[in-house]
Records
---
Amino acid sequence: MEGTRPGGAAPAGGAGSGSGSSSFPSLFPPGLHGIYGECRRLYPEQPNPLQVTAILKYWLGGPDPLDYVSMYRNIGNPALNVPEHWHYVSFGLSDLYGDNRVHEFTGTDGPSGFGFELTFRLKRETGESAPPTWPAELMQGLARYVFQSENTFCSGDHVSWHSPLDNSESRIQHMLLTEDPQMQPVQTPFGVVTFLQIVGVCTEELHAAQQWNGQGILELLRTVPVAGGPWLITDMRRGETIFEIDPHLQQERVDKGIETDGSNLSGVSAKCAWDDLSRPPEDDEDSRSICIGTQPRRLSGKDTEQIRETLRRGLEINSKPVLPPINAQRQNGLNHDRAPSRKDSLESESSAAIIPHELIRTRQLESVHLKFNQESGALIPLCLRGRLLHGRHFTYKSITGDTAITFVSTGVEGAFATEEHPYAAHGPWLQILLTEEFVERMLEDLEDLNSPEEFKLPKEYSWPEKKLKVSILPDAVFDNPLH
């Protein structure tokens, strides 16, 4: 990528909301022209903003899905305590050209391409005369994830990045997504484009979003000027979390919100596995042993769709949650709450319906052993307290295979695990039904998972009378099949 001024910004007076300029049809494809029009509405005095441009376009074989990232200087709003900042806008997640070179054209009524573009607001440092270009690479990274997985982002999603966004020593190491406060949806000849803003957050704020919900944490960030304020501007120099700035927020807002609402996170892609302890591991025909080094059975297309659909529905607060989950993806460092997908989001390259769905019988298991790495295990209390105690479900989908583990409560319809047979498997998909009483006991026994830095791996928890065992194992066990 290279930083440059655009060779063809929308001409003065020619920016529209959907049709290309008749004077410059080749320079301004209608989709591109529509987004420029919205930018010109906000920044009429900046017709030629600085722009980071993909040297070799994605549709010509280049690595960067975004053709351009425009960078505007926003004066903020002193009356609202909004500081001056840089405003970044992507071009490429939506359909810019309408000729199928990148996105399949599906009509004007639905979304254009993936239906959205990314934006980012970065606080301008004193004396800074030009915008930093690192946010453009950050946006390219998110765009690569969307293009590779075909999962889209939604307002309230979180992204676990696990690294300072600008590669500094900053505490801002993760992201939430929300509607851009100034940019309005654009109707183009290729569909509708909305604008999702990236908001940088600290690890503690990400965890709160996971345990409660992203929208709730975004609202709290809006109330703290130094943490984002009403326009949710990211300040990479911010050294305190909102909970350090105002300690009452955790107890009075987040903890009460979790107790009242539960968690909106319905599942994650994770390092996990499970063993059927009911049968000998060598009984390949009937045992579902995910022993390291063995080739697991594939999720059928129907199971994949069921799991995907349940996770997609997981954000909806229903009186009767419906199985089936899944879709928080953890891929290339990404992890977000919900991702409506244009294809089966759980599908690996070879996970087509190798085994016909009707030929895989559901099996009731007597005893199971669950295995998680430390990061995945740390989410078990969230799964139990934030989901199952609120009558919902939670799914772990293995990032190294087709294995899936879904915890369900007694209030979830459509599960093949029942109170009589709480452990049931359909191919590599395990469901575990836990009663409220057992959930409360597990939360007590798993208390130390809330402070994972205080225990050494491997760590094992066992409930012999329930014939259930949970192990927290080092990453190497999952990363190296022969370890």
Note: The two ends are 40 Å apart (CA to CA).
---
Amino acid sequence: MRVWFSLRRTWLSLELPILLAGAGLGLFSRNALILSVMLIPVFWLLHERKDRRTPLDVPVLIILLAFCISYWVSPLKDWTAEQIARALSGIGVCYALARQKEDLDLRLILYGIALLSVILAGVGLFTIQWVPNKIPMLNPLDWIGYLPQLGEKVHPNVFAGNLALLLPVSAAIFLWGKGRIHLLRAPVALLTGSLVLAVLALTLSRGALLAALTSLILLVILRWKLPALLGITVLGVIGWLIFPSMHSLIKPLYWFSSAEASLDLRQALWQRGLWLIEIFPLSGTGMGTYGLAVNHLFPMPSPLAPASHAHNLFIQIALDTGIPGLLAWLACLWQCTKWAWRAYRTPSTAPWWIRASGAAGLGAFWVLVFHGITDAVTWGTRPAVLLWAIWGWMILVEKVRASSLKQA
């Protein structure tokens, strides 16, 4: 019996590293993805009954049921199965993080996420399928065109949308860090955030870049509250007043003309997505089948090109899992946002990393919602596991916050 408990304890201590490794390898290998998904129920059974539960159990269960229905109605079974497997891998990582002990030092997670953001930004330089001439004054090929392209190409919008989720972590470390060591930590956090922001700029993903920049503004407001809000409001008014005189300087960027064409395409995709939701409100069309459904039922008018997804996160989730799945997903987001807010509002006597974690979570969720209005790259894509990991992190942050308050 002692041997069994020892083996069980050892195996459970490896849950998070194994599932993280499986999710990472699953980006490139379908076999690794399947193996990591198969291990999730094994770990769940090894845990004691009290450790299996999380506050997100009910909405996650609804999402799992929606996955079953999605697979049943999907005309593309293999593709839908792969999409579901990626979501299940993310849920496994979420639960593995949520089960970590309350005495875990959140600084390790903050530093780990900041390091991950730099690694992803570096990998992106060699894997992103760069788009030239989208903004002539910021052509990525002029800056990094000499770098070799390695492996499978990644769409810049997909990469930028997921990388932007991680940017608030470096900003939160920079803004909330304390102690003498912060004199060394602050420059590193600033450099890390700057590198991530530079890669985001090179992707030319307007939605992701704007979401990232506004999330930084949000963190500044959260850090200094009213003075920062007043200062940003004044600068915004001044910018608005002088904007007409600056129009002639900005026009050569073709930012607005290309954005207008992109908006026309998105509006057409959103409308067709809403039409499909009206037809399939409970089941959706099946995960990953938006393009097929649109082409058969509501073909795009010429010259607008067809797309594989709805370019709106909320419409896409409703199409993939039905309205019940969307409501369950929104419940998860709302609950995690509440936990992030509570952590941010923790008294200043508590360790700084609790407030920094809460602020980083709020910034990440701002990016998710803001960018989700015009794109759906944090759902149904290979790096979509990041969002589930952030949700698991917020569950852990709430546990650490509650434990810290009890000990105070």
Note: Confidence is low (pLDDT under 50) at residues 245-257.
---
Amino acid sequence: MAELGKHLRTIQILSLLLLVFANTCYSKKKLIELDEDNWQDMLRGEWMVEFFAPWCPACKLLQPIWKDFASWSDDLGIYVGQVDVTTSPGLSGRFMVTALPTIFHIKDGVFRQYRGPRDKDEFMSFIEEKKWQALEEIPAWKSPSSIQMSIVAQFFKLSMFLRGVHTSLVEEYGIPHWGSYFIFAIATILIGAILGLILVCFVDFIYSVRTTPMPPEPVIKDMSLSGIEEEEDLIEDRKKGAESQSEDGNENAEEECASEGEGTEKEEEEAVAAAATASAGEIEENASGASGGEQSEPEMVGAPEESTDSSSPTVRKRRARKTD
């Protein structure tokens, strides 16, 4: 009986081990590993996907719960997957994963981020009660299947590649960190210079194609420095000619005015001389009459006063008329 009891205990232990092994294999089979090659499978059907990293403490705590939840995927009619961001950095950039762990619900290519409690019951109720319908969809411009997010994924891949190069330079080749950074700086400058040269050549090609109809050569010659200088010389000559003509006109006018002034002065002198000769003749006549007799004295006393008053204006006018 004792031996029979030992055999029964051995059988029970073996059966329990088989159940545990089968359960483990079943759960592993239901948990789908996603990477850069098969991530597009989640665009068909309904999925719950976890983004994790092996070094993340929160991810380690969630790992057994997530596997248990994956074992119910057939009953729930969904697929359960996970993405290791250390081996698939492009997917972390495509989904813009900024914290770990991050869980997404995908339904026929429509993405929603799960932000509820992280336990199996909540996960199951989230699917059974369709609580995901209350969540906001990720905008189309941030959709992981869009072109712009594909470009972002390539940048994430490049960053991880450069990080791997830095690690290999430091650990395998023994280069110090500052030496690795210096190498990256030189490489960045060289790549930037090459890309800048390519861009300049491309722009020059486009610009030359658009400006093929060049202006005619005669216009270019006229607009040269020699043509401009000739035009300036012509303008200066015209200005000088106009100034010389105006100066000649002014001189002629001054000469005419001077000649007119001289003529008037001569006429005035001639008039004064004629008046003087007339007054002298009258004085002589008066003197001759006085010598002829005393009877004529009363008459001559008044006569000289009238005739000798040559300073009055009336006398001057009469004399001037006579001379004329």
Note: Residues 24-29, 292-311 have pLDDT under 50 and may be disordered.
---
Amino acid sequence: MKPSGIGGQAVIEGVMMKNKDHYAIAVRKPDNEIVVQKDSFNSISEKHKIWKLPILRGILAFAESMGIGIKTLNFSASFFEEEEAKKESKVDKAFSKVFKGKTESILMAVTMVIAIVLAMGIFVVLPAFAAGLLGKSIASDSLVAFIEGIIRIALFVLYVFAISQLKDIKRVFMYHGAEHKTINCIENGYDLTVENVRGQSRQHKRCGTSFLFLVMFVSIIFFMFIRTDITWLRYASRILLIPVIAGVSYEFIRFAGRNDTVAVRVLSKPGMWLQGMTTREPDDDMIEVAIRSVEAVFDWRVFLGKEAEGTGITIDADNNGKAVAAEKKENRQNSNKKSAGNNQSSKARTTKAGNSQSKNTKSEKTANNSSSKASNNKNRKPAAGSQSNAYNKSAREMAATSARRETLKTMNLFEEDDEILKAVDDFVAITDEAAGKE
């Protein structure tokens, strides 16, 4: 499987796909029309490079994903509010008078605050409180922290199971399955068609469900070592450390998306199993929506090598590129014939010129042969030596730079063209030079 780097999420009757700084939302309207909206997103990490450091980039990615997710959900929901807008209640009219044109934004903000408070209460405070009650009869603090984590995971699984029974959520989970299947189709090397997508898996290692499950698992490890007997401080530490735990979990998800080792597959299994609840088999209409979203931000033909980027030349995969191969062979033969003719004519011209020059210069060569050899030997040795030393020094510097950068890249801590990587490399180079002078 070849990682594509694209990700997405299911929205109301649609799919959002994101590729680097661009994302697209495809929604099927009530009249069966598919609407696609493209937009760009500039991450804070582009202005402030510190946010590209490990852990910090995970915290930022989590926050930015939340922002994009809310925005895309609002966009998809707007197509289904038109029917309800005609039946405006007295409460809606009162809100419109008080907040005027900002009613929708304010209601969404209030809804998000309530949702976050409830999530903190159910998945953070409640498990800590229940484990605290059990802790009175358990001597080991580490065991209490472990039980707290198990309670948290159990509550999360029950919550996912409960909402998966709702009719509207079932359709969202079906679009979630369409999103995963579409990405898997590309990364497995298949053309992006409804037929090919239909046969793909609904699970994916970079899924947000796996990320949330991993957050809860990592929190168990954190809180087994971070302990306090002060009740309010115990609750506060659970809440304040959520961004850090999310950052650590992001690093694993990022690593898992780029590697397919046995250890990664084993550690990803629990999250993949949980995706069996958060994804459902989509119908062909849903797959079509997901494909439209992908094609708006990602050229899968170039990714699969079906088309040369920027040329528009398409390779026929069914014929194994036989026509293209034949054309290339013919071009090579024509090129060889031309080059052979050019070589023969150039040789003839060179022979004629060489014969006339050789007669004139024969006597001069004999007279100056001994003196030129002596002078050349004297002058050539120091020049060759200095050039060789300069070349060797340059080669050593390039090799050292390459070795330093390759070490940092293999650690998978920095992006390839990251300015932080270059800064670290420059610092190491200066340090090595100073040590050499000493």
Note: The first helix runs from residue 56 to 78.
